[in-house]
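Incident review: delayed structure delivery

Summary: a single-chain prediction request sat in the queue longer than the usual turnaround. Root cause was a stuck worker, restarted by the on-call engineer. No data loss occurred. The affected request and its eventual output are reproduced below so the record is complete for anyone auditing the incident later.

Affected input:
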Amino acid sequence: MLAIIDYGMGNLHSVSKALAKLNTENSNKYEIIVTSDPVVIGSAAKVVLPGVGAFGDCMANLNSYGLIDIIKEVAGRGTPFMGICLGLQLLFDGSEEDPGVTGLGILSGMVRKIVAPGLKIPQMGWNSLELKTASPLFTGLVPAPYVYFVHSYHAVPDDSRIITAVTNYGGDVTAAVGSGNVQAVQFHPEKSSATGLAILANFLRS
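Output delivered after worker restart:
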């Protein structure tokens, strides 16, 4: 089973629809469930944490749904785990968007506002990736693939070696991170055409 975490915020329909389509073509078929049940999430073979909105609101919803402990548990025990967009940012210790709000702390570091003089914030639209370190999500991608972004903040990990991809927007902006079983992307793979579908298919196969 693959669990997509529902905490009242996030691009659940588009993510689940894309994964369901890819699942029909995958040799190992998954039961794909959108759920807020900690028991179901805890029993899943793979977990996806999507997210849109404000960092503080999302953390408040995760807390009110009673999902923080189970997310930390499944990520900590080696379950393949993918964060998408704000789902990447929530993995870190906190965000400048909502000072004082504690993140999941699965990855060490902070989420900072993008500094891009002369460019519009948020970054909205297509931009290319510079793949930095190996990630199971990026297997078989062409060099400098284009993906779709909508964000004003990006992760700044304590250990830069976990940055698996950056994009240039007034300088390097974190586009993806990965540490063992936990992999996450700042962009929207479900809106990123063939490249995004390839990334989601890689997660299904990983």
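Verification: The longest helix spans residues 193-205.
Action items: add queue-age alerting; document worker restart procedure.
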